[in-house]
Amino acid sequence: MANRHVNAIVVGAGAGGGVVAKELAVNGLSVVLFERGGWPQYDKHINDELISQRTQVLGSAFGPDHLKNPRVRIWEDGFRQVVTPIEGDYGHNAACVGSGTVSYGAMAWRFMPEDFRMRSTYGQVEGSTLEDWPISYEELEPYYEKAEWEVGVSGDDALNPFSPPRKRPQPMPPFENNREGKVLAAACRRLGLHPFPIPMLRNSIPYHGRPACIRNRTCVGFACPVDGKNGTHNTVIPEAMATGNCEVRTHCQVAEVMSDGSGRVTGVKYFNGEDQGEVQTADLVILAASATETARLMLNSTTKLFPHGLGNNNDWVGRNLQGHAYTGAMGLFDFEVTDYAGPGATFGFCDYNHHNPGIVGGGLLCNEFNALPYLFTGSRPPGSASWGKAHKDFQMRNIKRVAALHGPIQEMPNFSARVTVDQKVKDHWGIPVVALSGERHPMDHEHCKWLSARAEEVLKEAGALETWLRVGGRGLSGGQHQAGTARMGNDPKTSVTNRYGQVHGIDNLFVADGSLFVTVGGFNPALSILAIGYWVSDYITTTWKGTGFKS
Hints:
Structural class: alpha/beta
Number of helices: 12
Largest sheet: 7 strands, mixed
Order of helices and strands: EHEHEEHHHHEHEEEEHEEEHHEEEHEEH
CATH class: Alpha Beta
Distance between the termini: 37 Å
CATH superfamily: FAD/NAD(P)-binding domain
Helix content: 10-25%
CATH topology: FAD/NAD(P)-binding domain
Strand content: 15-25%
Mean pLDDT: 94
């Protein structure tokens, strides 16, 4: 039996897709929400560090299946390497209802006004496609607020002198600093910096019928055992389903977006949980599968009007892949500086996010999420023993005596960092896979060295006996903060969508995930992706008239 025609298909049940499905459903549109994974269950993904963080890839316990979903990494010398989701070069993103919002650290940052006008603030950067967004912080601010209150954020931006303007505070009070946070925040204040509690998509008090966070030490990379961490899987997607207008179709791999002779999309081809090919038709299609998988789907959907992939006649789909180079420093103390109160990260400061001499942008610095025993084996001063008795002795003696301070640097977008598809390597369903190529802009590593030095200053002021830098910014970006591959813009020649996420030349195809980002900011992007989901949805629900869009 053929699937019933619906108003909208949403591909990807993560931050952006979950929001879009809910907004369309509550406004009366019939929706099918496709997710290649299943519903996350804590009991099936217990707090086992070896399955969740063995390669330091966030959330790898939540898929995708490493046997069914290879990718290709193309190195500078042209060598093509097949990689799987449990390898660091994969550019991992989760595969489950909620996607990364199930296992993330749940930081809930708003981008700053400057993050939306980087080109105007800093000028042209050689070798970069740095540009302003076609929307401003002021336009997105109401949607940030909606995300904070509907999904649930704890924090107090009044304590952050660099906070962008807001009309309403966060709905829940901030979390108290753990021991490490208290020690390092005090050092920041002595240096004239401005520490404050990290805003979190976690319940500091019971909220919307779910309990408060229990400060579980095994938080990042895992589901929450009490449902106190807020993602789309336990907030907006259940709301969408409760309307009766949204069907969540799990274990479904979307292969292609279909379109007619005029260029308008008509639905998707997909494989169901039994690997059978099916078709779902719709009036609208919204892609929110991540910056790598959204680009892959567009590139694999070719027509006579778009021979190189939907929206790709100007060769911008898949370009400008960004993520975050994490950078910082570590310090060894002569006392137990950590108490392992979860999730570990409790404070940050934004003194270095913008307006630093000689730096384009900058980055946030925070204390670190808890390093569980296996992950801690990589937390060693240079020259330390990596095996044997000396290694074990360091582990036993110092696991609570090492503190970290780090954060994401704002990367410079560049045209050669990209997603393409590999026609020779196919996934389990025979679909050409993501191929990743290019490198970060060389400026990123220089900026990382600068920000790591600032982190080291704080650790020394806090009393660390020994400090060492952990400098990022080399290689290709992406990972769980992937963005930029279908950037929004006013000019179809240099962007993929308009300011509302509507693909240039295809009025009923939208993008609603981090792919839209022009720049990725110096912050974790989850709250901004939620806000973009609300922004795109608002345009659709206020302009759609059943067969087309109001003029």
